[in-house]
């Protein structure tokens, strides 16, 4: 019963984290940067100053759809981030460039995440079917395999945490050193990046607790 309660609490925490990142982004998107840099300006300057002038930046539709594409080596920024000059826009843009820099320097955790992605993609797709079939037919072997496959997805989310925190740290350091923001703007940058990081923490926590719950059910039924 306690494990179910923890999973529910973690799920609610995840929902709260998603609302918080949207609210924080919206709040600081209304605060313009003192130097007038847009998300594109900051991203372009950060890429160029780190020897990544060959990496393009593309605008994409959708809110908070920003990401770095390691396969095509492209930084994609949502239109509000790409075009606007706000604390939120510059923070998110520089965070995504942080991933491009990680790619360039072969940041170990990012390299590991890329290496295991095909396995995780397959495992996360088949795990639910194995678990459902295992519980329906009372097959401990299928349940066990489903838990193993689900574990790969949990491991991927845990590996993602240091990747995201490192990208944010790189972004904040460059933003201050290169003068993208003033000292009195660091507070807003921290709010935006910390809120975004919280969503990854929440997602990892939900998955980890769900894994523990499945293992507890599996061991309990075997006894």
From TrEMBL:
It holds the Pfam family Zn_peptidase_2. This is Zinc metallopeptidase. The keyword Transmembrane helix applies. InterPro entries: Zn_peptidase_2 (IPR007395). The chain crosses the membrane at residues 116-137, 142-163, 197-219. Keywords: Membrane, Transmembrane, Transmembrane helix. It comes from the Bacteria. PANTHER family: MEMBRANE PROTEASE YUGP-RELATED.
């Amino acid at each position: 019963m306690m494990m179910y309660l923890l999973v529910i609490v973690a799920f609610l925490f995840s929902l709260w984290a998603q609302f918080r990142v949207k609210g924080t982004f919206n709040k600081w998107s209304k605060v313009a940067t003192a130097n007038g840099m847009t998300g594109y300006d900051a991203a372009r300057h950060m890429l160029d100053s780190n020897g990544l002038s060959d990496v393009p930046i593309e605008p994409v539709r959708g809110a908070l759809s920003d990401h770095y594409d390691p396969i095509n080596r492209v930084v994609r920024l949502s239109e509000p981030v790409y075009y606007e000059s706000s604390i939120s826009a510059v923070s998110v843009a520089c965070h995504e460039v942080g991933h491009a820099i990680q790619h360039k320097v072969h940041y170990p955790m990012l390299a590991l995440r890329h290496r295991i992605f095909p396995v995780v993609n397959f495992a996360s797709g088949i795990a639910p079917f194995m678990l459902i079939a295992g519980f329906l037919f009372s097959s401990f072997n299928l349940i066990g395999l489903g838990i193993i496959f689900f574990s790969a997805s949990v491991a991927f989310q845990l590996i993602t945490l240091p990747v995201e925190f490192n990208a944010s740290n790189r972004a904040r350091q460059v933003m201050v050193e290169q003068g993208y923001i003033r000292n009195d703007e660091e507070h807003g940058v921290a709010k935006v990046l910390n809120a975004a990081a919280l969503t990854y923490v929440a997602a990892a926590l939900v998955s980890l607790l769900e894994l523990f719950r499945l293992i507890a059910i599996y061991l309990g039924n075997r006894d």
